Amino acid sequence: MGKDVEVGGHDYGAKDYEDPPPAAFIDAEELTKWSFYRAIIAEFIATLLFLYITVLTVIGYKSQTDPAHSSDQCGGVGILGIAWAFGGMIFVLVYCTAGISGGHINPAVTFGLFLARKVTLPRAVMYIVAQCLGAICGCGLVKAFQKTYYNTYGGGANELADGYSKGTGLGAEIIGTFVLVYTVFSATDPKRNARDSHVPVLAPLPIGFAVFMVHLATIPITGTGINPARSFGAAVMYGKDKAWDDQWIFWVGPMIGAAIAAFYHQYVLRAAAVKALGSFRSNATSSRSPLAYVTSYLVFPSTMATPSEIDAEVAPSPAERDADFITSEESKFNRLESATSTPSKRQ
């Protein structure tokens, strides 16, 4: 909720933040701007660097703990080190690209933001293409530099671990991606940014930490996808049947998780339609049906007003509030005057 603003001795509920306008479904004008293509390049390079560093870390860990080369099973960085590599790179790359492309570096994040009307369809499609190409190139560099190790130690490809069903793997990907995308929405919420000026600067930190925590939990199950581009690029360069047989898990799971996170944040936590219902209850003069308004907002969100427009349309103006206050005070005064002027029964 916005902070309360006191004007003339009265408390008025006022928003201390402003929601950005929803992105158009298709914006032909952005295709003519250099900033659009610069953002695509940034997503490509960021995903390339992400896969290059993280896949090298995975391969290095497996080679260091290979009994054929070393008897020290604790010589590698371990799962903790791998998780730090993924989370740390996301933190660094989101920080570097947030002001250029938004720092998605993940088709699931892009898909979730598209569902929340934060990006247009052309931008979402081009981001996903750039991310997948960047992932392929990043894994390609690793394979070019360390081909023997790459083929021997799995190329960093995501595969369902032995002993786990496909349903378990799918569930792990859904929940893991939900945690990530939910964190993205929360860290970039304009309401939070308005209250704490340091939040935009620190936003990459919780996002990277979310990636770190999810990797700790799901590396033993699926190797942790939560990023379809990461799984796709590694599978393309590795080329083994097992990686391709399980590939659908690393697309379907993250997309479902991203969709759930987008719905949860936009329609449950922000709950614009529910706020509108409460505003209708406090404004008895409104002619619109609250139930009809809420239903139309949930069923046709793309055609409805933004939360800021809802507040502007539903909430009474300051003049109307002053008039209501004056009327209320006059009514109280009249009742008090009537009570004091009426003789008591004892007299």
UniProtKB/TrEMBL annotation:
InterPro entries: Aquaporin-like, Aquaporin_transptr, MIP, MIP_CS. GO terms for molecular function: channel activity. The chain crosses the membrane at residues 40-61, 81-103, 124-145, 169-187, 199-221, 248-269. The keyword Transmembrane applies. CDD domains: MIP. It is a multi-pass membrane protein. Keywords: Membrane, Transmembrane, Transmembrane helix, Transport. It comes from the Eukaryota. The keyword Lyase does not apply. SUPFAM superfamilies: Aquaporin-like (SSF81338). It is found in: Membrane. One of its GO terms (cellular component) is membrane. Gene3D superfamilies: Glycerol uptake facilitator protein. Belongs to the MIP/aquaporin (TC 1.A.8) family. PIP (TC 1.A.8.11) subfamily. This is Uncharacterized protein.
